[in-house]
Amino acid sequence: MKHIAIAVSVAVLVFGVAxxxxxxxxxxxxxxxxLEIGWANAVVxxxxxxxxxxxxDDFIQWNSDGTSQTKAQLLAALKSGDYAAxxxxxxDIKVRIYGDAAVGTGLNTSKEKYMGKDTSGQYRWTDTWIxxxxxxxxxxxxxxxxEQKSLQA
Length: 153
Prior knowledge:
This protein is of the alpha+beta class. It is built from three helices and seven strands.
């Protein structure tokens, strides 16, 4: 009888740890989704302080035209007005967590200009996050323009 009680106790403990891990994973996922949405809103509002907080100092972003931008370059482009967005709407956001690292993916439907050129459209994106000094920071991003389906066969 004592062995059954120990086995049940171990099973309850394992189940409890599994539920706790899943709950923590869900809350981390929600935290990162909020950061992704906050990032889109910060670009529209030119909230450089928010972006400075969530982007790692060694952040690199690969754009759909094959160019790259560092954190400093992205912030400078926003500050100068070379890059301006009037709308960024994120959808299809998914986050996968790997301990102190995570990958976020989704779709950004944007109205924006870069260097005076309209670059509005839909972009698929992937962001790589790490937990550093107790907070999540994005270390890398990539965006690709989503192809528009042709109405002609």
